Amino acid sequence: MPRASRKATIYDIARLSGASASTVSAALGESWRERRISEATVEAIRSIAAAEGYSANMQARGLRKARSGLVGMVIPLHDNRFFSSMSQSFESFARERGLVPVIASSMREPGEERRIVETLITYAVDYMFIAGATDPDAVSAMCNAANLRHVFVDLPGRGAPSVVSDNYKGAADLTRRLLTDRPISGGTCRDRLYFIGGDPGDYASARRIEAFRDALTEAGSPPGPGQVIACGYAPRSAMREIAALCDRLGGLPAGILVNSLTAFEGVLGHLSGLPLEDLRSSVIGCYDYDPFAAYLQFPVHMVRQDAHGLIREAYRIIDQNTNDLVLRTVEPQQIAPRTFYDRPFSDHG
Amino acid sequence: MPRASRKATIYDIARLSGASASTVSAALGESWRERRISEATVEAIRSIAAAEGYSANMQARGLRKARSGLVGMVIPLHDNRFFSSMSQSFESFARERGLVPVIASSMREPGEERRIVETLITYAVDYMFIAGATDPDAVSAMCNAANLRHVFVDLPGRGAPSVVSDNYKGAADLTRRLLTDRPISGGTCRDRLYFIGGDPGDYASARRIEAFRDALTEAGSPPGPGQVIACGYAPRSAMREIAALCDRLGGLPAGILVNSLTAFEGVLGHLSGLPLEDLRSSVIGCYDYDPFAAYLQFPVHMVRQDAHGLIREAYRIIDQNTNDLVLRTVEPQQIAPRTFYDRPFSDHG
DNA sequence: CCTCAATGCTGCATCGATTGTGCAAACTGT
DNA sequence: ACAGTTTGCACAATCGATGCAGCATTGAGG
Questions:
Q1: Are B80 and A79 inside 8 Å of each other by CB?
Q2: Which helix (H) or strand (E) holds B101?
């Protein structure tokens, strides 16, 4: 029974209760004690409001109080294990604080990213999180102009505090693991490790590539040109590149470090066409974790980034009201092949 | 250089341009032609606004116009392939229409779901999408009281138009596929197909279970008790149940239809402990698709739901301004084992 | 009886943008 | 030169909630 065609306002409640609008406002909020409204009046007003199904209009409240109760977050895309984990954590921390999360995806396009930040600013979000920023300086400029506190996540910015994954350590550890497990056949270039996927212009990828190079150098075999194939994130291009590589080498290399799950999909598309024995002479690692990728026909060493931890730290920075330009680091976790790992939020699709 | 500590308003622009606030408002919007503001004035105002970095305050606009420009969507959770695909599509369709998407997850809890809908209403969203509703009637009641147009997705409601996946057909086809491919050993209960995972109280699961039963019956072997194990979505419980089942049967059954990817994680946790030969005597299917699950050590028949199509249809319903109580159905797609399938939005993590 | 303080509430301005109404000035036609 | 029209803009009310300032009423103290 849709009673009224318009939602009740404090004025409706005021009329019905015989009180004034300001009394109603106080009674329904927290301030009734300090405004010396009697408990009886508060009860009466509240029961009428409940009966009328009243709920505040946040646009009006936000306009008046110059706060919206919204927290914005920009992520590259929703359709991704890592970022959707971040969304989940972002939302649960927001709720803890009584804030309403608004998450938007930039598709990694700087223009889209700017448009989103602009939009969130026009909606007067109280804080903003930017994950995987493509143009952090521009974002900071906009937020500062709007006097908006913001934090960068996963990719640091110079204009605001940042929380990042320890990409260097994660990739270095993974590389060392692959070096240890790699089968040795005899001094050819097929004994080498290859890095595939990602964009060297991307902060995270750059750090991982750096770690890969350093770990190889430290092990006495600095990478030659062509051992790092940063062909982007798309499965198709990774599939193309791995095929080309195998062609060049005359077979699989001793080890492959794949920089993202999506690139790994492409690699897998190629590997699954090969006989299983070929795969035994190769060791595979992937930056990022997927429970199914952990149970393929061949062992895969994975790295699980701590999305929850990243967001937790980002909120901590927001909570302590300073504007210090800190850079906090969260450690990823190496996951051995064929490990059953229960995610914090597991449910159905 | 954070110039002003407060964002510029139309009054600031009015002062700077010598025009009135209403003229500024018209000049910056669409209505300047019908309000007969000269082009010269419009240009002048716009350039000043641009120089000042002006952008409208949506709270004020929304309050006045009684529209927020927001579209809300409730999903069970972010951290899930199917729902995060929905989010991605939801967002891109929203942008096409100049709307700002707000996505919230209910964790499948009716209380949380109601709270979220209530919150979205207080923020005056213009439309609402509810995916996988746990209490559709309550949601419809709230939306109707607020005079808010809404659509149910993935799980239908009686109080509003709905768009759902054809769970019956998807599950029936998958069951028939498994029946065809199943190895025959000799009339024991290990020849049977088992359904595992999901919640029979959940609409989608119920439809799939119904299809599973019908397909078996149609094939001449109606399922006995215990052939449907609806143990929820959590990996752990699926793992426990599949282990218990194998115990009871003295080995793997001829076929398993797993009702969700998360349940499949658990099943996999058990299967991966078995020798590969055991798996050859069994055929596995999973409702929902994951690119890695498609390349496991044994073949897996998968069903890919059309998240994009679901959202597209939901927006279509919103676009045509009627309030007819339609129920639209979108077909899922069966995916053969070891298929390389490129998702519409593929990127990195 | 009168002052003073405490109690319990109301009135009004305000936040920023939109929009119906009004009103000069410029221009048109006669 | 004068009525009538068009052009170009300003004024003020409005959306709903908030919070400051203030005003009756009651009670206590001298």
A1: no
A2: strand B100-105
Looking at chain B from residue 144 to 183, which residues have their Cβ under 8 Å from any Cβ of chain A?
A: 144-147
Sheet-wide strand order for A70-75: A100-105, A70-75, A127-131, A149-153, A162-165, A327-330
Residue A86 sits in the same domain as residue A113: yes
What residues contact B343, with CB distance under 8 A and at least 6 apart? Answer: A79, B85, B291
Task: State pLDDT tens for residues A234-291.
Answer: 999 999 999 999 999 999 999 999 999 999 999 999 998 888 888 888 999 999 999 9
pLDDT digit string, tens, across residues B48-58? 999 999 999 99
Structural domains in chain B (count): 3
Least confident of A53-57, A184-188, A344-348, B30-34: A344-348
Compute the mean pLDDT over every residue in chain B, rounded to the nearest whole number. 93
Q: Do B52 and B74 belong to one domain?
A: no
Strand D at less than 7 A from CB of A63 = yes
Neighbours of B172 (CB within 10 A): 21
Residue-level pLDDT at B2: 37
* In A272-320, alpha helices (H): 276-280, 307-319
Same-domain status, A48 and A86 = no
Query: How many CB atoms neighbour CB B14 within 10 A?
Result: 19
Q: What is the CATH number of the domain that holds B242?
A: 3.40.50.2300
Q: Residues B177, B259: one domain?
A: yes
Task: Answer whether residue B38 is part of any domain.
Answer: yes
- Helix (H, G, I), strand (E, B), or coil: what is residue A198? strand
Residue B278 — very low, low, confident or very high, per pLDDT cuts 50/70/90?
Answer: confident
CB B27 within 8 A of CB B41: yes
| pLDDT digits 0-9 by tens, B101-112 | 999 999 999 999
Please tell me whether residues B249 and B160 are part of one structural domain.
no
Provide the 3-class DSSP secondary structure of residue A229: strand
CA of A36 to C1' of D21 (A): 15
In a domain, B272, yes or no: yes
Task: Tell me if B132 is assigned to some domain.
Answer: yes
Which residue matches tokens 């959940």? Answer: B202
Tell whether the model's pLDDT for residue B225 goes beyond 80. yes
State whether residue A73 is helix, strand or coil. Answer: strand
pLDDT band at A332; cut points 50, 70, 90? very high
Same domain, yes or no: B79 and B39:
no
Whether residue A138 lies within 8 A of chain B, CB to CB, comes out as: no
Please tell me the distance in Å from B269's CA to the nearest CA on chain A: 6
Q: Copy the structure tokens of residue A90.
A: 């972002």
**Locate tokens 């100049």: which residue?**
B98
Residues A171 and A142 in one domain: no
CA B85 to chain centre: 7
Beta-carbon contacts of A185 under 8 Å, excluding residues fewer than 6 positions away, are A191, A254, A281
Spatial neighbors of A183 by CB under 8 A, at least 6 apart, are A254, A280, A281, A282, A283
Exposed, middle or buried, A107 (CB in 10 Å: 0-12/13-18/19+)?
Answer: middle
Domain that holds residue B135: 69-164+307-332
Q: Closest Cα of chain A to B265: distance in Å? A: 7
| Domain match, B189 and B205 both | yes
Residue B127: exposure state from Cβ atoms within 10 A (0-12, 13-18, ≥19): buried
Distance between CA atoms of residues A169 and A164, nearest Å: 12
B14 inside domain: yes
Q: Do B349 and A295 touch (CB under 8 A)?
A: no
H or E segment at B129? Answer: strand B127-131
Q: Which residues from chain A sit within 8 angstroms of residue B4, using beta carbons?
A: 145
Residue A23 sits in a domain whose CATH number is 1.10.260
